Amino acid sequence: MGPGCEKMDILFVIDDSGSMEEEQMNLGANFPRFITAIEEWMNADGNLIDYRIGVTTTGKDIELVINFAGFPGGGGGLPPMVINEMGDNGEMRQECGMTRKWIEREDGTALTTFPCVANVGTSGPGIEMPLLAMEMALVDRMSDGTNAGFLREDALLAIVIVTDEDDCSIRADRVEFNLDIGSPMAADACEADADSLVPLNNFLSTLDGVKGMRGRWAVAVTAGPTSCSSAFGDATAATRLQEFVSLTGDHGVFSSICEGDLTSALDDAFATFELACEEFPPLI
User: Fold this and answer.
1) Which residues make Cβ contacts (< 8 Å) with residue 27, sequence separation at least 6?
2) I need a labelling partner for 5 at 20 to 30 A (CA). Which of 187, 262, 281, 284 fits?
3) Has domain 7-59+89-168+198-278 been given CATH number 3.40.50.410?
4) Measured in Å, how far apart are the chain's first and last C-alpha atoms?
5) Is-above-0.90 flag for pTM?
6) Which long-range contacts (CB under 8 A, 24 or more apart) does 120-123 make?
């Protein structure tokens, strides 16, 4: 085994739907600790990790056509409601004085800039697609130049996903579904178009293709292990995200968003990335 990775490209995919306000506040409080750990991290050769950090969100542009068939009387004859939701589509955010789409060690401002840009708000789409957003950030937005330059061949790719919903990655730009009383809109939309959900193995293949092999990327997901409640509010069981992490092997970790404090989740992410960095295969 070589000295491990010298560089790490970290992509955060953060849920910006209406239910995430408390989670984002807690993340913001703990991000400086995460950055401090990255800043002080040395690899086996005693070199500080050359890191980059980019932030995108879980949403993409999509047209939702909502039928009220689940309401008493079939919705009382109400016509379908059409909602056009606009997401980041994998574009990494450039805010808070950033001069590019990502933050680098050499900037010397990560402790303040990262919590600022990671405060993504709660006005994003209610249909969370973190895995598709990840793919769009690393493939589509690279090919069209939007996120170009972020990825480095000789860097470990580290992905952090934070959401209080399960993954509902659908490539279609339009979803029609029946809204049931007491059921989250995202759950109804996902169930209605379940056959269109992108297979999880597709995302594994995407990451393998982006980095050339499985050992050059790692992922940390913070979501609901079950339907649960905490000081943050409610979270649904993220079964697809749990399965995705299980498919990644040793370089994936799933942490609960319902613990009331996201300190341990960020610690889990750091530990997983540290292990993946130690085992980073040398470029041939």
Assistant:
1) 14, 118, 162, 262, 266
2) 262
3) yes
4) 13
5) yes
6) 120/14, 120/16, 120/24, 120/55, 120/57, 120/93, 121/16, 121/24, 122/16, 122/17, 122/18, 122/19, 122/20, 122/21, 122/24, 123/16, 123/18
